[in-house]
């Protein structure tokens, strides 16, 4: 086996709590979200994991989750790379809207298509396929080389940027990946072979 890749969706955000489309809006974690991030770090500490480098998005909810995890494992000063390639999917005109209000305006079926289809973007925003188009090259060029050198890499990001990564790692189709549910603050541990294929996958659920 080669290295280890740990993926963590940020803890609950203020807009998760309010049922709002968030996307690239830079909202903070709730008290529960801070707790979820600390708990994720504690679980990883219990596994004896130490990281060589961390990656996160340009958005504070992911950055704070990343820092809580690093604090918990005793690596507060670890090199952390921030890049908008790992940002949440851009929800465009839906950003800031309550999901129920969006259903009232555009209809249940249309909003479901925007939320859960692979390649249909909301107005002014990105589809999951579009999100993948920025996540995959960033993973291949900036993140995967560390894992293939045998390092342990932390990625604290968002539901859809991580879905895109999981799609590539697990070899999922567009239809399969939209059904993947990611809990907030739940670490997923991948161990990769030297040829970049997945040797094992473990979800440290609550």
UniProtKB/TrEMBL annotation:
Gene3D superfamilies: Phosphoglycerate mutase-like (3.40.50.1240)
Active site, UniProt feature: 10 (tele-phosphohistidine intermediate), 88 (proton donor/acceptor)
Enzyme class, first EC level, given as a word: isomerase
Pathway given in the UniProt record: Carbohydrate degradation; glycolysis; pyruvate from D-glyceraldehyde 3-phosphate: step 3/5
Keyword list, A-Z: Gluconeogenesis, Glycolysis, Isomerase
SUPFAM superfamilies: Phosphoglycerate mutase-like (SSF53254)
Binding site for substrate: 9-16, 22-23, 61, 88-91, 99, 115-116, 159-160
GO annotation terms (biological process): gluconeogenesis; glycolytic process
GO molecular function terms listed in the Swiss-Prot or TrEMBL record: phosphoglycerate mutase activity
Highest rank taxon of the organism: Bacteria
Pfam assignment, any one: His_Phos_1
Catalytic activity, EC: 5.4.2.11
Catalytic activity, reaction form: (2R)-2-phosphoglycerate = (2R)-3-phosphoglycerate
Residues under site feature: Transition state stabilizer: 158
Subunit structure: Homodimer.
Family: Belongs to the phosphoglycerate mutase family. BPG-dependent PGAM subfamily.
Annotated function: Catalyzes the interconversion of 2-phosphoglycerate and 3-phosphoglycerate.
Protein name, entry field: 2,3-bisphosphoglycerate-dependent phosphoglycerate mutase
Provenance organism: Aquamicrobium lusatiense
Taxonomic lineage of the native organism: Bacteria, Pseudomonadati, Pseudomonadota, Alphaproteobacteria, Hyphomicrobiales
């Amino acid at each position: 086996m080669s290295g280890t890749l740990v993926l963590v969706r940020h803890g609950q955000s203020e807009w998760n709590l309010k049922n709002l489309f968030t996307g690239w809006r830079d909202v903070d974690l709730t008290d529960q979200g801070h707790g979820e991030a600390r708990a994720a770090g504690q679980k990883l500490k219990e596994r004896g994991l130490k990281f060589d480098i961390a990656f996160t998005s340009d958005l504070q909810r992911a950055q704070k989750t990343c820092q809580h995890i690093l604090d918990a494992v005793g690596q507060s000063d670890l090199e952390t790379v921030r890049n908008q390639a790992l940002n949440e999917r851009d929800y465009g005109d839906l950003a800031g809207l309550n999901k129920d209000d969006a259903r009232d305006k555009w209809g249940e079926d249309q909003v479901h298509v925007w939320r859960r289809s692979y390649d249909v973007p909301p107005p002014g925003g990105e589809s999951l396929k579009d999100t993948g188009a920025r996540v995959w090259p960033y993973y291949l060029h900036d993140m995967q080389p560390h894992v293939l050198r045998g390092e342990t890499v932390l990625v604290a990001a968002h539901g859809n940027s991580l879905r895109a990564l999981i799609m590539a790692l697990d070899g999922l189709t567009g239809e399969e990946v939209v059904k993947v549910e990611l809990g907030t603050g739940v670490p997923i541990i991948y161990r990769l072979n030297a040829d970049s294929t997945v040797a094992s996958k473990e979800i440290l659920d609550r």
